[in-house]
Amino acid sequence: MARILGIRLLRLIATLFAVTFLSFIMTSLLPGDPAVAILGQDAIQNEALLEEVREDLGLNDPIPVRYWNWLTDAAQGDLGESYINAGQDVSQVIRDRVPVTAQLAIMAIILAVLMAIPLGVIGAYREGRWQDTTTSAAVQVALSVPNFIIGIFLIWLFAVQLGWLPASNWNRLSDGVWDNLRTSIMPATALAMTQMAIFSRLVRSDMIATLRENFILAARAKGLKDRYILMRHALRPSSLSLMTIIGINFGALLGGTVVIETLFAIPGLGFRLINAISQRDILVIQGITVFVAVVYVLVNTAVDLLYTVIDPRIRRS
Amino acid sequence: MADAHTPVLVVDDLRTHFELPIGMVKAVDGVSFELERGKTLGVVGESGSGKTVLSRTIMGLNIASNARTSGSVVYDGRELVGLTPGEMRQLWGTEMAMVFQDPMTSLNPVVKVGRQLTEHMRAHLGTSKQEAKASAIELLRSVRIPEPEERFNNFPHEMSGGMRQRVCIAVALACGPKVLFADEPTTALDVTVQHQILNLLAQQQRERYMTMILVTHDLGVVAGRADEIMVMYAGKAVEKASTSTLFSAMRHPYTEALFRSIPKTGNPKHTRLTAIAGRPPDLIHPPPGCKFAPRCPYAQERCREEEPELQAAPEPGHSFACHYPVGSEAGKAAYEANLAAGVPQTLAAAGQVQATEDLSVVAAAAEEVV
Predict the structure, then answer these.
(1) Given A105, A206, A274, B38, which residue has the most CB atoms within 10 angstroms?
(2) Contact B296, B290 (CB under 8 A)
(3) What is the interface pTM, i.e. ipTM, of the complex?
(4) Does residue B231 sit in helix, strand or coil?
(5) Contact A237/B91, CB-based, under 8 Å?
């Protein structure tokens, strides 16, 4: 176990190197000048001033040197300051924004799993019959509609027509669970629909394979009820790919909720990241990228460990 | 009160056909038999003879939506064909249970052995958790699993194949079924373990006074263990008799061929096993006449045109479906005529050419011999 974790740790470090180096190069190669972004378009004539700012930020150093400087600081926990909003610590940005996006992502995954498992199980159990074709069609629709369309629909229905929920804005969890829920349920649902569609397809297809196994026939021959067989005998062996994709998609959601965050005016990580990219705010981009990468690797390590809980045969190898 | 000689299971003209896009597969095609309480019926045939489908049809386990079942299965005075899966479920485990072919795949790999042994006891009999555990451990002991208390908490992959089949037997016995189906229970196991498992099944069957249907491709397996034997070919029963009658007075050439293919320890070393030339027939487009005719060393023109009906032999309870039965004058004459004419499968049966799955290869070899 210690050995496995050691290997994991090495892999995490290697991943972080690769991710941060690549994102550093990418952002540095972007056309556009952070100095212009800081001083504004009017300063474009004032080459001396621009040069001073560039020198000050270390932008004139070669990319490997700048990366090395950033890396040594980051290794000591200092992710630097925003170029644009002077004095704003990147770690502070992350601390402010992460709870919002993480909450959205977690809610979306939970909602998606809660919807996907019954749908997938029904589809597999009634493979080819009307229950399967209807759920598959619904899932197909959920998969084809972009999540911001679902978001707009939810706003139209629950905020405009029914007036039950605020159309946008965000109340932090610290403002009270109920207030938070009123602002988080719609964006989380909008994010969840696509995930639900992916998850339920996976559960359905894995479940169909599991239901053909001999041990399912053997369980039937014991006189067990179908529902019990589905939930007790078939679901667990059918959930390995679901676990994998939950891990991957959770990481993707952390960095990818930007459209929904924009639509609902939510001060999340994705919103801030897009801002930083348009302003060439390299250190903020770096900081958020590193954070998402770390979470990504950690979540997927957790998923790997979960495999052994689901399937005891994996424990030995 | 039913007395001991009332058949507990009466199967009459049972048919299971599978509708496929390319045609109808007649997997079981008009099988009838009766079985008394406490007796063992051996069902013998090659792969594809319909023996597994037969046992699943009797139990009502054919869940495929393209399966069409007709005929009648009367269990303990009750007609089973036409019952819904929900009604059949009442019988599964408590009245009828099955031991499957492959113990490596018929236990759920992610569920502990203990749960797999107790879940149906608790569902059917309403046993409490502790009681179920106690009787499960007792069961494990009775199927001779060492350290049953520890095994109770094992996962299936922590056990050997023979051990797992013992667990499967224990699972099947847990709710005290009256009829036990054993579908090739030893095919997937080591030869050394096969005997132990078969003896265990026979012992449990005697002790619990169960009726057993033992399905196998190996006539040797049922020889000392079945009271009656039914030989199946292409979905039909081709010979039925009590075990002693079958072995002393077999009439069907297919039974004879199966008998010849049992390895015998008395044979000198390196004796070639006698195989049956050719393959079981295509069940969608079976040959006209006798289904075994293309492979039969006795086959004559009549066999290829007219399908033989099951007819009674002089011995009580013995019947067979053949125009030129083994041991009869007609059969002897047919065999010798075929041998003289160099009919490939006859030469193969006589050991003059090598029997293989491909009849054209056998025919080519026969050309050279004649």
Answers:
(1) A105
(2) yes
(3) 0.87
(4) strand
(5) no
Query: Does pLDDT of B209 surpass 90?
Result: yes
pLDDT tens, residue by residue, A9-57: 888 888 888 988 898 888 888 777 778 777 777 777 888 888 888 888 7
Find chain A residues with C-beta within 8 A of B109's C-beta.
Answer: 215, 237, 311-313
- Structural domains of chain B, ranges and CATH numbers in brackets: 7-233 (3.40.50.300), 236-264+276-369 (3.40.50.300)
Distance from CA of B353 to the nearest CA of A (A): 40
- Cα gap A84→A81, rounded to integer Å: 9
CB B279 within 8 A of CB B239: no
CA distance B222 to B185: 12
* CATH code, domain carrying A205: 1.10.3720.10
**Spatial separation of the C-alpha atoms in residues B102 and B185, rounded to whole Å:** 7
Residues on chain B touching A213 (C-beta within 8 angstroms): 105
Give the separation between CA B7 and CA B109, rounded to whole angstroms. 38
CA-to-CA distance for A311 and A244, rounded, in angstroms? 13
Buried b (16+ CB within 10 A) or exposed e, B186-199: bebbeeebbebbbe
| Chain A residues closer than 8 Å to B98 by CB | 218, 221
How many residues appear in chain B? 370
Task: State the burial class of residue A126 (Cβ atoms within 10 Å of its Cβ: 0-12, 13-18, 19+).
Answer: middle
Residues 101-160 of A with CB under 8 A from B: 128
* Secondary structure of residue B17 in the 3-state scheme: strand
Residue A19 domain flag: no
Give Cβ neighbours of residue A258 (< 8 Å, ≥ 6 apart): A268, A270, A271, A273, A274
> What's residue B1's pLDDT?
43
Range of the domain at A184: 93-268
- How many domains would you assign to chain A? 1
B185 touches chain A (CB under 8 A): no
